[in-house]
Amino acid sequence: MGKKEASIIVFMLVLLTMGMLSLAFNIQPAKAEWTGTVYIRADGSIDPPDAPIITYDNITYTLTDNIVSDGDGIVVERDNIVVDGAGYTIQGTGSGKGIDLTGRSNVTIKNVEIKAFNWESILLYYSSNNNISGNNITNNGYGIKVYYSSNNIITGNNITANNEHGIGLGFALNNRIYGNNITANNWAGIYFYDSSNNNTIIGNNVTNNVGDGIYMDRAAYNMVVRNNIEENYKRGICLLSSSSNIIYHNNLINNTSQVYIENSLNVWDDGYPSGGNYWSDYNGTDFFSGLYQNETGSDGIGDIPYMININNIDRYPLMNPYTVTPSVPSVINATVDVNPKALNLRSRGKWITAYIELPEGYNIQDINASTVMLNDTISAEPKPIAVGDHDGDGILDLMVKFDKASVISYILTNVNITRLFKGRFMTIALTVTGKLNDGTPFQGSTTIRLIMPIPRGLYKIFPI
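Above: the chain sequence. Below: its structure as tokens.
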């Protein structure tokens, strides 16, 4: 082989090697999900520190990414805090609970999706005065379990397709469950047992559960009012040794069996003229009115009672379904986008722009723009303000702007500056709050990335 041929072969090998290296260096690894259990410790710290959750004040803890766990997802050891999922997901891969609130008081869990845990999505055990609101809970063992716990609020959650009960209460007192969608769970939608007394169940949609809609075993003095209890596979309501419960203004529609009762005596109406429940299998007429249904003229109440058994009678069955008005949440969960999504702290520009979307049933034009604030500190500018659809999802949003210098000043006052300088990047949560014209509050959170360029003279102090 001559020198010329050898040189060509070497050159070709170099090109081939360079091409392979180029391909290798251009392979972009997929972003790995964060895996493990997050602990919010009693002192307010987050363990481990690299977990995708942040706090500035040891009160509000906001997820910044999804969590995958083969044990528990989040274990809360601190009272008087808010855990805001910011729309992220906590997903199980084996046993364990989504969020463990054992022994906790005054904790809010909101705006998070919890799925695929073999045990409970959320466990309240010896816990009181907590608020579980606006979460999506699917394909777990239990949906939410309230055990030896009192004075908790469960509202505005979607609790669907869990392997056991949607919500289970055991030795649970004075809890309030309202405005939830509880559907297609493999056992009961709502399950009371073992002296779960004085609880209030209002305005829930309890439908298509494989077991009963509502099941009570040795439960008393509970109020079940204004619920849609529809097309549950076994029974709409099952009562075993459960007396002194008050049950009215519910819609019991097309359940395989509307009610099953053993050793129970309960109240099934709210008197006249308020009335009782709507029963889809009631075949009475409405020709009369009055306390004894013996006066001329119809009144929307059946002329004869609905007989469950000799001791349980709805004296004033409704002729038409009761209109169940969804309970207004204490705070509307808004969707918020913020631009820029990566904020260079040394860049020019005047504004930080936020886009606010409200959930179905609310009008974006009902927002009182003068009440909009960022992190409860910085007010939105009075103009420009505009209604549009910046992300093209078919849902109108309100655009507001915040003074960029004020936002940066706030951020630098509330983050770990040393960590920011050393890392040059940091993810932070921003929360936009405000009120509708009728005073109803809303809130939405998102995350952005901070970028801190370091002047050349500081490279030796903070090496990259």
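The domain at 34-314 is CATH 2.160.20 (Pectate Lyase C-like).
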